[in-house]
Specification:
- Strand 1, helix 1 and strand 2 form a beta-alpha-beta unit.
- Strands 8, 9, 10, 11 and 12 form a five-stranded antiparallel β-sheet that branches. The protein has a four-stranded antiparallel β-sheet with strand order 4-7-5-6, with helices on one face. A three-stranded parallel β-sheet has the order 2-1-3.
- It contains 13 helices and twelve strands.
- It is of the alpha+beta class.
Length: 363
């Protein structure tokens, strides 16, 4: 008797529907799970009609990067036909905020969640019109709203750089949308927040994991001060190890001091389980929110990619060595990182036990 419909990626897409230890954790707390194609516009509704006497939850979990407008509309239509079935991780309506960053910023502004100023524009001429209206000062980024990992993104420090960058972004837009329409691709301009620690001479960011009304875990990421894209994967350097310790200790404090804002950054988007990307704004002494990631990388049971034991993510051999050698000391400085993140089995057990309680109370 199924309790959960897992509306997954299409079988034609990467097999990333379940992370390491995730599915067994969901089954343990929510009950048996039925896996179906969540991107074909029909299978979720069919599954619900067949098992509606027992199904109590739906987990909308399509490909956040590649889902098309047609596939997303199929999610919405099926969800409307099913009715208000409690959701796990993403609601159908809230899923657009995973991909369309300008919509996320708009929603966050309405909810009082601190995020960068931004605007979207249709072409180069419209950029200058919108820039004058919005008065975003240099430096800023121009980018596609639903691209990832710094792709199709240009850092603009002065006006002269726009002459080359705007045509490049136009070309990116044409190529990007010709192969996959996605939900609603747009060109956007986003204020670059000052996240550089001038004293320590590094740039940093945080990935924080939220389930329901609780912050489960998180970690700090440190890169060179001139690197605006502060992600750890492939960028860890032993020379930054002291800063790694400092920012992961700081992350522990951030998760406590900004707990309400972190949770609101997820719940305000009609979502309930996300990896939240944020940076510390040194100009305003605030935590600034950038985006949410429902499929945050934590390793897969089929051994996909570089995600390997003991931690799966991180997997950088040098960082893993530091983490193991210094566990006794560091686990007291940033315990949620060691206990609730590096331990993936405990991570997902906490995620789904928290979600079960949170969803049932709200339902």
């Amino acid at each position: 008797m199924y309790k959960v419909i897992a509306a997954n990626r299409s079988p034609q897409r990467a097999s990333k529907n379940w992370r390491i230890f995730e599915k067994e954790s969901m089954v343990r707390h929510f009950g048996p799970v039925l896996d179906v194609n969540g991107e074909d516009s029909v299978s979720v509704l069919k599954a619900y009609q067949q098992h509606k006497d027992t199904v109590k939850y739906v987990r909308w979990y399509p490909d956040p990067e590649l889902i098309t407008e047609k596939e997303y509309n199929g999610m919405l239509s099926q969800n409307e036909a099913i009715g208000d079935l409690p959701y796990i991780t993403n609601s159908a309506k809230g899923f657009k905020y995973v991909q369309s960053k300008e919509e996320t910023f708009k929603k966050w502004k309405e909810a009082g969640v601190y995020c960068p100023d931004s605007f979207y524009f249709d072409n180069a001429k419209d950029f200058y019109t919108q820039q004058e209206k919005n008065n975003i000062e240099y430096p800023f980024l121009i980018r596609l709203n639903n691209s990832v990992s710094g792709k199709h993104t240009y850092l603009i420090n002065q006006e002269s750089q726009l002459k080359d960058a705007l045509p490049k972004l136009d070309n990116d837009y044409k190529q990007y949308t010709s192969s996959n329409s996605r939900i609603d691709t747009k060109r956007i301009c986003v204020k670059l927040i000052n996240s550089v620690d001038k004293d320590r001479k590094v740039n940093s960011s945080f990935r924080i994991h939220v389930a329901g009304d609780k912050v489960i875990s998180g970690y700090g990421r440190v890169v060179d001060q001139n690197d605006w894209l502060a992600i750890t994967a492939g960028k860890f350097k032993s020379e930054h190890i002291d800063n790694f310790v400092y920012y992961n200790t700081f992350c522990e404090k951030v998760m406590t001091d900004f707990k309400d804002e972190i949770v609101e950054s997820v719940l305000s988007l009609d979502l309930n389980h996300q990896g939240v990307d944020a940076i510390y704004d040194f100009d305003n002494n605030k935590l600034c929110f950038l985006e949410v990631q429902p499929t945050y990388a934590s390793g897969y049971p089929n051994g996909m990619g570089s995600y390997t034991p003991p931690y799966y993510n991180p997997y950088d051999p040098t960082l893993v060595s530091h983490l193991k050698q210094n566990e006794r000391e560091w686990s007291t400085l940033f315990p949620r990182y060691y206990n609730n993140w590096l331990d993936k089995k405990n991570h997902f057990d906490l995620v789904y036990s928290t979600l079960k309680e949170f969803i049932d109370v709200r339902s």
